[in-house]
C-alpha cells in the first residue's frame, strides 16, 4: 500500500510517476516533532536507504543531509555526497511488516537515525512544503518493489556500456587515447570504452573541441569503434562566459541561464573560469542545452558522462573580491595571530560551493520564480533529463550511454550514476559494496564506483580486489585523478595475469549480468540487495553488510581487507561455492548453511550459486561486440536433481524496443 500526504504547497519535482490522491487523515507510524517527524525504532530494527550516502547498509547511528554537494573527501564523517535520495526502508526485527518513507522535496532534508537517541528516527525538511509517501508491505523486498513502481522505470544503457571503461583526468591528446587502446590490446585485456575528461575541450568549454590536441575527433571515434571501443566524453554544467562562443551567446540572447535577484545572469567559476549556468528547471532551457550534444553525436559519439552538476561552484566573483580585500588587509600586518591565520585558511576553503552563492541566484519555473537553494537538489537531475530527452531526438530509436554525478530520485529514468570522486582506500572499497543496494533501491540500476579509487595512489592489491567486486557492478569503470599514480589495469605487471582473468570473467558472466539487469529494469526486480531481503526471518542474515545477493541466483562476498587471504562468509542456506581464478580454473564445493572461513587468495574471487539456480557463462571476449551468447556453458546448483532452467535476455543492445518477447529465451534446461 502506498499513501501520499501533502504538507504545505510542494514544488513539483516530477520524481514519481503514479498519480495518487492525497490522504486526508493522520500520518500513520510517524509522530509530528517540531518542524519534522519522528519514528520510534525497536532495538534491532534496520533502516536501509538514502542511496548515495556514507556508512553501511544499515543507516542507524548517524545523521545525514540530502544536500547535493561536491564532496571530494569521502568518509564516515561526511553528512552528504552528490545525491539526494530521500527514501528510507524500515525493517523491524519482529517481522511485523516493513515501512518505506519517501520525502519528495527538492531542497535539503535532515535525518537523525538513532544519532541523538538510539531508538528515534527523525527527519525534517528545510521548509514545510513537500509530499510524503508511506509504503507498507510484509517484507523489505516488497516495499522496495512498490517504491520502484512509484518512481517509474530505470534507464537502460546500450549493451556495450556493460564492458570495461577506462578513464582518467589527464588524457590530454589523441595520442594519449590511442595509446590506452593499444596497451589494452597488447596486454590482452578487454575494453569497451575510453572516457575523456575535460582536456578534450578548448579551454575546458562545453561543446568545444581542442583541435590542436584532437584534430579529428570523429575519425578517432570511428577508428576506435572499429576496434570495439567507444569514446565517452564528459560534459560539465557550467557554460563558459565567452562572447565569441555561439553556445554562450545564444544562451544569453534567449535568457536560458539562471539569474540573480536583479535579473542579470548569475556567474560563478568552475573549470573554464567564469561560467553561466543553464536553468535546467525550465523545459525550454533543457531542450536548448540538450541540442548542444549534437556537435558530438554528429561525430559518432554514442555516450556521455555529465559532471559538476550539483552545481559545483569554485567561487563567485563577488565573494572572491571580498576575500582578496580581506587578505590584502591582513597582508599589511607584521604578524598574524592564530585567529587571523586560520580564519584566512577557512575563508579560502569557504569560497567553494558556498551556501551564500546558492542563495544568490534564481530559477524561472511554471510554479513561479524560486531561489536556487530551495530547489538545489533538482539541478543535477534536470541536467541529466536535458541530455536524456535530447538523445531521443538526436539518436532516435537508439540507446545512448549517460551517467552523471549529481542526482535526485526521478533522474534514474534518464541516466545512471557513478558514485563520485572517491579515493584509493580499502574503506572506500567497502563503501562501494555497501552503497550499491541503496542506490539501486532508488532506481539507479546503472551505477558503479571508480574502480581502484579516483584520488590518491592505489596499490596493485587494492586495484585487483576492487576489480573483483567491480566486475559485478553494471557500470565498471577505472577512473583516476591527474595527480594520482597511473592505474590503467595494464600498469600492474605483477598482478596482470590475475587482472586479465578477472576482466575475462566479467565478460564471460555478461549473459547473466545483463539478463539480471534487464529483469531489474523491466520488472522492477532487484539487481543487488542485502541478504535480509530474501531471508527476512534469519537474524544472522540481517547482520551481514558486506555480502550481496546478485540477481536471482548468485551471492557475492568480496574480500575488502588488505593482506587478507580469505574471509568469513555467512550462508543463510546451503550454496555452491565457486572459488574462481579464471572462467575455466576454479574450485567447487557445496557448503551447508552457517558461517564459514573461506580461503581466498589475491588472484581469486568467491561466488555462490543459490539452490535451484543456473548461471549461463560465455567464452571471454575482447569487447561486448565479440561476445557470443549462444555458445554457453552453465554453472548450476540443483541439489534435488531437478532441472534449473535460466530465463535469459538477449538482444544486440542498441534499440530501445526493450520489451519484445523474442528477447527472452530459456537456457540451461
From TrEMBL:
Superkingdom in the source lineage: Bacteria
Pfam families: Gal_mutarotas_2 (PF13802), Glyco_hydro_31_2nd (PF01055), Glyco_hydro_31_3rd (PF21365)
Record domain Glycoside hydrolase family 31 TIM barrel: where: 155-515
UniProt-listed PROSITE patterns: GLYCOSYL_HYDROL_F31_1
Domain called Glycoside hydrolase family 31 N-terminal: residue spans: 40-112
Domain Glycosyl hydrolase family 31 C-terminal intervals: 525-613
Keywords: Glycosidase, Hydrolase
CDD domains documented for this protein: GH31_glucosidase_II_MalA, GH31_N
Similarity remark: Belongs to the glycosyl hydrolase 31 family.
PANTHER family per record: ALPHA-GLUCOSIDASE, HETEROGLYCAN GLUCOSIDASE 1
Name used for this protein in its record: TIM-barrel domain-containing protein
Amino acid at each position: 500500500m502506498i499513501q501520499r500526504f501533502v504538507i504545505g504547497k510542494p514544488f513539483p519535482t516530477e520524481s514519481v510517476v503514479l498519480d495518487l490522491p492525497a490522504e486526508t487523515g493522520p500520518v500513520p507510524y510517524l509522530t509530528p516533532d517540531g518542524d519534522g517527524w519522528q519514528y520510534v525504532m525497536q532495538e534491532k530494527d534496520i533502516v536501509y536507504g538514502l542511496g548515495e550516502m556514507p556508512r553501511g547498509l544499515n543507516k542507524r547511528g548517524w545523521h545525514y543531509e540530502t544536500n547535493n554537494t561536491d564532496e571530494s573527501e569521502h568518509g564516515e564523517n561526511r553528512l552528504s555526497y552528490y545525491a539526494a535520495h530521500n527514501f528510507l526502508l524500515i525493517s523491524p526485527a519482529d517481522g511485523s511488516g516493513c515501512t518505506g518513507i519517501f520525502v519528495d522535496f527538492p531542497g535539503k532534508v535532515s535525518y537523525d537515525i538513532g544519532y541523538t537517541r538510539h531508538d528515534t528516527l527523525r527527519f525534517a525538511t528545510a521548509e514545510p512544503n513537500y509530499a510524503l509517501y508511506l509504503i507498507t508491505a510484509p517484507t523489505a523486498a516488497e516495499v522496495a518493489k512498490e517504491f520502484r513502481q512509484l518512481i517509474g522505470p530505470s534507464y537502460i544503457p546500450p549493451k556495450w556500456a556493460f564492458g570495461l571503461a577506462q578513464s582518467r583526468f589527464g588524457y590530454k591528446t589523441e595520442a594519449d587515447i590511442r595509446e590506452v587502446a593499444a596497451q589494452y590490446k597488447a596486454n590482452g585485456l578487454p575494453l569497451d570504452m575510453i572516457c575523456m575528461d575535460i582536456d578534450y575541450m578548448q579551454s575546458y568549454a562545453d561543446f568545444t573541441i581542442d583541435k590542436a590536441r584532437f584534430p579529428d575527433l570523429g575519425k578517432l571515434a570511428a577508428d576506435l569503434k572499429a576496434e570495439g571501443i567507444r569514446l565517452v566524453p564528459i560534459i560539465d554544467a557550467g557554460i563558459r562566459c565567452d562572447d565569441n562562443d555561439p553556445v554562450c551567446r545564444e544562451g544569453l540572447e534567449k535568457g536560458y541561464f539562471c539569474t540573480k535577484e536583479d535579473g542579470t545572469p548569475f556567474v560563478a567559476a568552475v573549470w573554464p573560469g567564469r561560467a553561466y549556468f543553464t536553468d535546467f528547471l525550465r523545459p525550454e532551457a533543457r531542450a536548448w542545452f540538450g541540442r548542444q550534444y549534437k556537435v558530438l553525436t554528429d561525430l559518432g559519439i554514442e555516450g556521455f558522462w555529465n559532471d559538476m552538476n550539483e552545481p559545483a561552484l569554485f567561487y563567485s566573483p563577488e565573494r572572491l573580491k571580498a576575500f582578496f580585500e580581506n587578505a590584502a588587509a591582513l597582508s599589511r600586518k607584521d604578524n598574524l595571530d592564530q585567529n587571523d591565520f586560520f580564519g584566512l585558511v577557512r575563508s579560502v576553503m569557504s569560497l567553494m560551493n558556498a551556501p551564500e552563492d546558492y542563495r544568490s541566484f534564481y530559477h524561472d519555473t511554471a510554479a513561479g520564480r524560486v531561489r536556487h537553494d530551495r530547489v538545489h537538489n533538482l539541478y543535477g537531475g534536470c541536467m541529466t533529463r536535458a541530455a536524456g530527452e535530447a538523445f531521443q531526438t538526436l539518436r532516435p530509436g537508439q540507446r545512448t550511454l549517460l551517467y552523471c554525478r549529481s542526482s535526485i530520485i526521478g533522474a534514474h529514468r534518464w541516466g545512471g550514476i557513478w558514485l563520485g570522486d572517491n579515493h584509493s582506500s580499502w574503506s572506500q572499497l567497502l563503501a562501494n559494496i555497501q552503497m550499491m543496494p541503496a542506490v539501486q533501491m532508488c532506481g539507479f540500476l546503472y551505477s558503479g564506483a571508480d574502480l581502484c579509487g579516483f584520488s590518491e595512489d592505489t596499490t596493485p592489491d587494492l586495484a585487483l580486489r576492487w576489480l573483483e567486486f567491480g566486475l559485478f557492478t553494471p557500470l565498471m569503470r577505472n577512473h583516476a585523478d591527474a595527480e594520482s599514480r597511473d592505474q590503467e589495469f595494464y600498469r600492474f605487471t605483477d598482478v596482470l595475469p590475475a587482472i586479465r582473468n578477472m576482466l575475462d570473467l566479467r565478460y564471460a558472466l555478461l549473459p547473466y549480468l545483463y539478463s539480471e539487469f534487464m529483469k531489474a529494469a523491466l520488472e522492477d526486480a532487484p539487481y543487488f540487495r542485502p541478504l535480509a531481503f530474501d531471508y527476512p526471518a534469519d537474524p544472522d542474515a540481517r547482520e551481514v553488510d558486506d555480502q550481496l545477493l546478485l540477481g536471482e541466483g548468485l551471492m557475492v562476498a568480496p574480500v575488502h581487507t588488505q593482506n587478507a587471504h580469505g574471509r568469513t562468509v555467512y550462508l543463510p542456506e546451503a550454496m555452491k561455492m565457486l572459488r574462481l581464478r579464471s572462467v575455466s580454473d576454479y574450485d567447487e564445493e557445496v557448503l551447508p548453511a552457517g558461517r564459514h572461513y573461506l580461503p581466498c587468495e589475491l588472484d581469486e574471487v568467491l561466488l555462490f550459486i543459490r539452490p535451484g539456480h543456473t548461471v549461463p557463462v560465455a567464452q571471454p571476449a575482447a569487447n561486448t561486440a565479440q561476445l557470443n551468447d549462444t555458445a554457453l556453458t552453465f554453472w548450476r546448483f540443483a541439489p534435488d536433481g531437478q532441472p534449473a532452467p535460466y530465463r535469459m535476455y538477449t538482444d544486440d543492445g542498441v534499440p530501445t524496443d526493450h520489451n519484445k518477447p523474442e528477447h527472452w529465451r530459456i537456457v540451461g534446461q
